[in-house]
Amino acid sequence: MRYLTAGESHGKQLTTIIEGIPARMPLLKEDINESLLRRQKGHGRGKRMQIEKDLVDITGGVRHGYTLGSPISLVVHNDDFKHWIDIMGEDPIEEDAKIRRVITRPRPGHADLNGALKYGHRDIRNILERSSARETTVRVAAGAVAKTLLKHLGIEVSGYVKEIAGIRAAEIDSLTIEDRKTISEDSPVRVLDQNVEQQMMDAIDEAKKEGDSIGGVVEVYVEGMPAGVGSYVHYDRKLDSRIAGSVVSINAFKGVEFGIGFEAAEMNGSNVHDEIAWNEEKGYYRTSNRLGGFEGGMTTGMPIVVKGVMKPIPTLMKKPLQSVDIETKEPFKATVERSDACAVPAASVVMEHVVAFELAKAITEQFPSDQFPKLKKVIDEYREEIRCF
Ligand SMILES: Cc1cc2nc3c(=O)[nH]c(=O)nc-3n(C[C@H](O)[C@H](O)[C@H](O)COP(=O)(O)O)c2cc1C
Ligand SMILES: C=C(O[C@@H]1CC(C(=O)O)=C[C@@H](OP(=O)(O)O)[C@H]1O)C(=O)O
C-alpha cells in the first residue's frame, strides 16, 4: 500500500490516491467523513476551521460500497478557495500584479526560508501553501481507509492527548479501547479527566490571548494486531521504524516514543523487558507492556502504544520572532492575520491515522491481499496458528 497527496492549503482541493487496498472491502464515505470531522475539532484552532467543513468525494476505486482493487482516489474541497481564487488560480498573471500578495518574510519554525532557498521561489506563498498542515486532511482520509481495513480485521486504533504545555493527562492505562475512542471523540482537548481538560483549555486560551502558541504530546493506542507483523531482517522492514518515520512526518512533530520510551535509558533490563507467558485462550502474551507492543521491528501481539511530541505552532499572532525580509535583507518582526494557537488535539487524530496507515500497509505486505475476504480468512488462520505455536 502507498499513497500520495496533492493540493495547496488555499487551492481548489486536496487529493489523495491510495494504492494497494484489497478488492471487495466494504468502504463508505461515512467511514472517511467521521475521521475528517474529528480532525477539524479540538480546542485551540484558528478561524480557518470555521470556514471549512471537510467532506470527502470518492472519485475512484469504489463501487456500491466496496473497493475494486484499483487505486482509490479521494478529494476534499477547500471551501476557503472562493476567497483566494485570484491569488491561487492556475492562469499566469503579471509579475508585479498586486493581487499576488507576495510574501517575502519567512517565519522561524515553518518551512518558509528553507523551502524558498531549495526551490528558488521569491514568493514564500509558493512554499507555505504546500507545507501547511492543511495537507493532513487527506492524510487522515487515506488513514481512514486504512483504519476501515484494520477494523474489519478486528484491529482498533485510537488517538488522544497526553500532555499540553506541561499539563499532563490522567493515567488511562487500565482503560479499554472503546473508552479511549470515546475520549478522542468527546473531549475538546481529548483527555479523560474534566479537571485536566479545563486546565488545558485555559492554557490554550491564555496562549491565544497572548498571541503565542503551545505544543504537547499525543498517544496512539492499538489493540488487536497479531504478533509477528513487520520484520527484523532489514532496516526498512522494521514496523516500529516505519511508524516512527511517519509520525515525525506530521507537521510540527519532533519525536516518537514506544511504550516507556526514553524512560528506558534510566532503568535496568530486568525492569524493562516484558516477560513471556502462554495460556490456551490467548496463546503467547506478556505480563507487562513496557515496550509498547514491539520487539525486533515486529509486533508482540500486545497493544501498540506510541507517543509523538508536537512543538508549538510556528506562526505567532502577537509574539513575532526576529527574521529577515528576503528582498530587502532588513530585519523585521512578523505579524500575521490568523493561525492556530494549539493544534495538539487535532494532531492526535492525524497521528492516529498515519499509524493506522503503516499498520495496514504492513499487513497487506505480509499476507495475500488482492481480495479482502481472503485476507480476512488468512489473518484468522494465522491468529489460530500462532496461538497454538
Ligand atoms: C493539525 C495541525 C495544524 C497546524 N496549524 C498550524 C498553524 O495554524 N500555523 C502554523 O504556523 N503552523 C501550524 N502547524 C504546524 C506547521 O504546519 C509546521 O510547523 C510546519 O509545516 C513546519 O514543519 P515542521 O514543524 O515539521 O518542521 C500545524 C500542524 C498541525 C499538525
Ligand atoms: C487549514 C488547516 O490548518 C492550517 C495549518 C497551517 C499551517 O501552517 O500548517 C496554517 C493555518 O492555515 P490558514 O493560513 O489557512 O489559517 C491552519 O488553519 C487544517 O488543518 O485544515
Automatic annotation (TrEMBL):
Protein task? This reaction introduces a second double bond into the aromatic ring system.
* Statement: the UniProt record of this protein carries the keyword Lyase: yes
From the broadest rank down, the organism's phylogenetic lineage runs: Bacteria, Bacillati, Bacillota, Bacilli, Bacillales
Where FMN is bound, by residue?
A: 130-132, 251-252, 296, 311-315, 338
Name the residues that bind NADP(+).
39, 45
> Is this entry keyworded Lipid metabolism?
no
> What cofactor is needed?
FMNH2
Q: In which pathway does it act?
A: Metabolic intermediate biosynthesis; chorismate biosynthesis; chorismate from D-erythrose 4-phosphate and phosphoenolpyruvate: step 7/7
**Could you say which protein family the record assigns here?**
Belongs to the chorismate synthase family.
- Protein name in UniProt: Chorismate synthase
What GO terms are given for molecular function? chorismate synthase activity; FMN binding
Gene Ontology CC: cytosol
One GO biological process term: amino acid biosynthetic process
